[in-house]
């Protein structure tokens, strides 16, 4: 649905050039919720503006539904943009307009008849659960309600793609999950392709099927959540299923392994099987279990007795569909979130 190839964006600031995006390649499949995560200054907002051609890329291409957006101009570009809905960080509603009038605005711009506008606005407010707030002004709505109005407005022109730029960063935790649930529901009901730009890893964990890490204007990692998690040495894998960055103080001798397993294996008694098979005591140092993109994953850190044959134990675990690697003491939170 979305394909970006060799995308570069350079800005000139006084006498120097700033490379905001550097050779970005990205593919978002149809019907996917794809999270793009990165710290402030990573290039996330620039990427959004290039996706909608509000900023022209310096070089490279942006294709949506097989159409090269970067080759369009004038009326063709305006028509193509109508198939892209945009949800902003703070909703960006017109304070002087009611919820219904805010949703109606994109339809008014394209000279839609009043009868069609009224019917569409009612349909969309029903869809986001705000039918009874049609006549309310933004100041009378909560943050979550304002964001729902913003989502309804983004859907007014029946887009194929929904771009969400930090859609939950100004919301409390429960409202965040409510909005993400709405986005997931709309993806399923309307068969949307969704891109969520965020600096919050919990948004990726809760809502996304795939994720890309944007750092210093470059895509450093990208893939489905299931594939990314299994690359146990990567920053994204550590961030999605974190383990402590340090070992416990006064830890005795013995090899320390990080175990990763998924699906039905994530609920099986792996440690119990290990102790029975080798007749050893296993010290569980830390662990995390998460449901990511509809599949359960477990990430454990264990310590084995000093005399353990690590390679034999790794082979045994591999036969149980469990990846076992020497512990990597990585704290990804400072790298991925700001």
TrEMBL record:
SMART domains: AAA (SM00382), NIL (SM00930). Residues 2-241 form the ABC transporter domain. InterPro entries: AAA+_ATPase, ABC_transporter-like_ATP-bd, ABC_transporter-like_CS, ACT-like_dom_sf, MetN_ABC, MetN_ABC_transporter-like, NIL_domain, P-loop_NTPase. Keywords: Amino-acid transport, ATP-binding, Cell membrane, Membrane, Nucleotide-binding, Translocase, Transport. SUPFAM superfamilies: ACT-like, P-loop containing nucleoside triphosphate hydrolases. CDD domains: ABC_MetN_methionine_transporter (cd03258). This is Methionine ABC transporter ATP-binding protein. It comes from Micrococcoides hystricis.
């Amino acid at each position: 649905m979305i394909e970006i190839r060799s995308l570069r964006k350079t800005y000139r600031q006084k006498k120097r050039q700033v490379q905001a995006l550097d050779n970005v390649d990205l593919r978002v499949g149809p019907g996917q919720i794809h999270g793009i995560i990165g710290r402030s200054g990573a290039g996330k907002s620039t990427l959004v503006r290039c996706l909608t051609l509000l900023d022209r890329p310096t070089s490279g291409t942006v294709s949506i539904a097989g159409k090269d957006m970067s080759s369009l101009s004038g009326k063709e570009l305006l028509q193509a943009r109508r198939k892209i809905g945009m949800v902003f960080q703070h909703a960006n509603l017109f304070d002087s307009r009611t919820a219904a009038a805010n949703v109606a605005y994109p339809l008014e711009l394209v000279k839609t008849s009043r009868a069609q506008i009224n019917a569409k606005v009612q349909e969309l407010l029903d869809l986001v659960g705000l039918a009874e707030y049609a006549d309310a002004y933004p100041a009378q709505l909560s943050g979550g309600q304002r964001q729902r109005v913003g989502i309804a407005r983004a859907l007014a022109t029946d887009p194929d793609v929904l771009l969400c730029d930090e859609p939950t960063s100004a919301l409390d935790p429960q409202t965040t999950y409510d909005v993400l649930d709405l986005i997931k529901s709309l993806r399923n009901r309307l068969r949307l392709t969704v891109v969520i730009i965020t600096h919050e890893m919990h948004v990726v964990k809760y809502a996304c099927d795939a994720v890309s890490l944007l750092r210093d204007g470059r895509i450093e990692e990208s893939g489905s959540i299931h594939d990314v998690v299994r690359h146990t040495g990567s920053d994204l894998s550590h961030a999605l299923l974190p383990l402590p960055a340090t070992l416990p103080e006064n830890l005795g001798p013995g090899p320390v392994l990080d175990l990763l397993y998924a699906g039905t294996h994530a609920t099986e008694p792996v440690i119990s099987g290990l102790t029975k098979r080798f007749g050893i005591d296993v010290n569980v140092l830390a662990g995390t279990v998460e449901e990511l993109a509809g599949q359960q994953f477990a990430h454990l850190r264990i310590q084995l007795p000093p005399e353990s044959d690590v390679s034999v134990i790794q082979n045994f675990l591999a036969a149980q569909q469990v990846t076992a690697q020497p512990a990597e003491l990585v704290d990804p939170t400072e790298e991925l979130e700001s």
